[in-house]
Amino acid sequence: MISQAAFRDAMARLAAAVHIVTTDGEAGRAGFTASAVSSVTDDPPTLLVCMHRGSRYNDVFKINGVLCVNVLGPEQADLSAAFGRKNRDLDSCFAAAEWRRAATGAPALAFAAVVFDCRIASIAEVGTHSVFFCEIVGVATRGDPAGVVYFDRSYHQLRTTSGETPTGDAQTALASVLEALGGADLPPRLYDWLQAAAPIDELFIFQRPLGLSTPPQPLMSLGRSPRLNERARAYCEDFYQLDPINELLPRDQPGATARIVPTQIAHRAYREICYERPNFREKISLWRRRSDGFVVVSMFRKADAKPFSSRELDAIRDCGRILFPIIDKHQSLTLKHGARPRPGETVLQNIETKLAALPVSLPPRQLAVCSRTLIGMTAKGIARDLGVKTSSVVTHRRRAYERLGISTGSELARLLL
Ligand SMILES: Cc1cc2nc3c(=O)[nH]c(=O)nc-3n(C[C@H](O)[C@H](O)[C@H](O)COP(=O)(O)O)c2cc1C
Predict the structure, then answer these.
(1) Most CB atoms closer than 10 Å: which of 133, 181, 184, 362?
(2) What is the tens place of the pLDDT at every residue in 132-169?
(3) Which residue minimizes the CA distance to atom 13 of ligand 1?
C-alpha cells in the first residue's frame, strides 16, 4: 500500500476539470470545490461526485438530495479557491458570482462551462469519502467551449480556437500586439491598429467589479484628446454615478433615449452594447464577464461623426475578440485589482428608491438589506453597516425574497429593470 501523501502527490499529476458542487433545500445552501467528479453511465445519465465525509456540509448534501455540478470556465478559477477553503464564509463565496436556481433548486453558476443539475440517486461510503451517484436531470452549456483544469496543484486555462481567437489578419495583429505586451509601445500600436479597423476618437478600458458599490477602475485609455487619462478617470466616475443597474443590463432609459443597436449580443463570455445618446458621442461598449465583474471596452465617436456602419461594427466585434485576451494578459502582467468595496451612497439611495417603488412593499429592514445586497455587500458587511447580527440579515433577506417571490440576488436586480 502507498501512503496517503504519495497518493495525493500522484493524483496531482492527473489533470482534472474544476467544479463547484452546490446544493440548496431543506438543510440550506452549501457548495464546495471538487475535482473528484466523473461520468458513470449515459443510461440513465449519471455522474459521480466524491465528497469528504468530514466536510461540514456533507450532511447538507445528503439531506437536500440534489446538487449542481458547475464546471468552471477559464475566468472562474478564483471561485475554485474561494469554495475550496476550509472555514469559508459561504455567503461571500456565493456573492462573488452570479447564480440561477436550477430545476432541482440547487444553485447553477452563470457562465459556467457546463452545469449538470442532478438528483442524488444513491450514496456509497468509501474510506474517507462519500461517493454521490447523481442522476442528471438537466444540463446548461455555455456558448463558447472554454474551461480550466487543475494540474500539478495549479490552474490551466483551456480555450479552443473557434471562440475568442481571431483568424487571418486579426490573428497577425494579435500576434504583433502580444509581442509588444509589457513594452512601452503597446498603447500606440493598439491604437493605430484599432484606427485601421474602425476609426474611433477615444477608447477607455476599465474594470467594473461585481459589487456595484465599487467604482470602475480605468485600465487603459487610448486616443488623441489632451489629458486623456483624466478624461478616462472622469468617465469612470460618471459611469459610476449613472444608474448602475441600467448600465449593467441596459435598456431604453427615459430621457436618455438609448438606442440599442440590433447587434447587441449577450453571448459567449462578453456582450456588445451599442447605443447613442443625444449630445453624447456614439459609444460602443464591449463587455467581458468574469467571475468578479466585467471588463468593459468603451469606444467613442464624436457626436458629429457618422454612425458606425455594419462593416465597422463587425470590425469592432473582431477588436473585442482580440482586445480581451490582450487585456487579460496585460492585466496579469501589470495591473492589480483595486479598491475594496465600500457602501455607495448615491447608488444605494437610488436603489432604495427603486425598491420602495415596487408593487410589493418591503418593511424598512428588509428594504435596507435588499438594497445593500444589490450593491454587492456581503451579509457580514450589511450586518456591520446596519448594526445587526449576520443571521438577522440572512433572515431579513430570505423573508424579503419570499415576499417578492424570488430566490436570488440577480432576480432581485431584474425586478428593478
Ligand atoms: C482544486 C480543488 C479540488 C478539490 N476537490 C475536492 C473533491 O473532489 N472532494 C472533496 O471532498 N473536497 C475537495 N476539495 C476540498 C473542498 O473544496 C474543501 O476544501 C473542503 O470541503 C473543506 O472542508 P469543509 O467543506 O468542511 O469546509 C478540493 C479543493 C480544491 C481547491
Answers:
(1) 362
(2) 999 999 888 765 567 889 998 888 878 654 333 333 34
(3) 34
